[in-house]
Amino acid sequence: MNGKAKGSRAERKCIRLLEANGYCCCKAGASLGLFDVIAIGATDVKCVQVKSGTKYVSALEREQLQLLRVPSNVSKEVWRFPDYCRAPLIEHL
């Protein structure tokens, strides 16, 4: 499976998990922004960068994510879906 297809599959999995927990989700077109998935809940918002397989957030991406100012009810998260693991590894920034 190529990298783009693998990434799209991880993003869809992220959306399914968030929607199962009551969030309304939208996926960034072509995933060219800082976040791949935006999830809106009743009291909070999650901005999620999704990584699949062995990919990690680069130093530049991490810096951009950490410098972005958001309201207190918005969380910035990185969800990794390693090949060997069904559940995501979630990092809050």
Give a quick precis of the structure.
By secondary structure, this protein is an alpha+beta fold.
Sheet with the most strands: spatial strand order: 1-2-3-4-5
Instruction: Give the terminus-to-terminus CA distance.
Output: 30 Å
Q: Architecture, CATH level 2? A: 3-Layer(aba) Sandwich
Rg over CA atoms, rounded to whole Å, is: 13 Å
Average pLDDT rating: 87
Describe the model.
- There is one protein chain.
- With 93 residues, the chain is of the alpha+beta class.
- The protein has one domain: Trna Endonuclease, Chain: A, domain 1, CATH 3.40.1350.10.
- It contains two helices and five strands; from the N terminus they run αβββαββ.
- Strands 1-2-3-4-5 form a five-stranded mixed β-sheet.
- The chain starts with a helix and ends with a strand.
- The model has no long low-confidence stretch (mean pLDDT 87).
